[in-house]
Amino acid sequence: MSYKSISKNIVQWYDDNKTQMPWRDIDDPYKIWLSEIMLQQTQVTTVKEYYNRWIKRFPTIQDVADSSIDEILK
Question: N or C: where does the chain have the smaller number of CB atoms within 10 Å of the terminal CB?
Answer without folding.
Answer: N
